[in-house]
Write a structure and sequence with these properties.
Shape: globular
Mean pLDDT: 90
Distance between the termini: 33 Å
Strand content: 15-25%
CATH class: Alpha Beta
Radius of gyration: 16 Å
Strand order of the largest sheet: 3-2-1-6-9-11-12
Number of strands: 12
CATH architecture: 3-Layer(aba) Sandwich
Order of helices and strands: HHHEHEEEEEEEHEEEEH
């Protein structure tokens, strides 16, 4: 039942995202980035884990360039065959190629692994989120496995379009939640997760 509900919601969100035009994606992504830059979780972070976008996800290239300008260490996740993520320090868009599932990631000769416990802030994608910080990914479980291994106090920030927010997601026991969700309309601080 849970898997069916998740599958249907994934399909719905993928379809909705596929209908966005490039200009809409750029405009919404710029709004989202603007909110992010004002957060202390971005300003004060030294090591930032980000994704390279696929399938009309919120664009992160400008965020990565801003992080570089601010002398932050930028990490990109690399999918491994065992469903784990290797985190690699990222230094140039010229070092990118499509890896597993056609996800852009650093080329093998450009990999510079960094332990997960060095990440201050993780900025992650997803297909849907709810107001309790629950996240629905693509179903591989990569981020769900990674998030518990990050250092205590690491901020977990999701970037999403407003339509990707739902009242309540179907949640499994291994689904990892986020602390903040940023859409083009506002920043949602998950109060029951960031009050500690």
């Amino acid at each position: 039942m849970l898997m069916t509900a998740k599958k249907l919601l994934r399909q719905k969100m993928l379809t909705q995202r596929s209908l966005l035009t490039l200009s809409e994606i750029k405009e919404k992504s710029a709004e989202i980035a603007g909110f992010l830059y004002n957060l202390p979780q971005f300003k004060d972070t030294a090591t930032l884990l980000l994704y390279l976008p696929i399938k009309n996800e919120v664009i992160t290239q400008a965020i990565i360039e801003t992080a570089w300008q601010q002398k932050k260490t930028v990490l990109i996740p690399v999918c491994l065959p065992d469903r784990n993520l290797l985190l690699s320090e990222f230094g140039s868009f010229a070092d990118v190629e499509n890896g597993f599932y056609n996800i852009p990631e650093p080329k093998p000769n450009a990999l510079r692994p960094v332990p997960a416990n060095q990440v201050d802030t993780v900025i992650l994608p997803g297909l849907a989120f709810d107001y309790h910080g629950q996240r629905l990914g693509y179903g591989g479980g990569y981020f769900d496995k990674l998030l518990p291994s990050l250092k205590p106090g690491c901020s977990k920030i999701a970037l999403a379009y407003d339509f990707q927010l739902v009242d309540r997601l179907p949640v499994g026991e291994h689904d990892a939640a986020v602390d903040i969700i940023i859409t083009e309309k506002k920043v949602h601080i998950i109060s029951d997760r960031t009050s500690g």
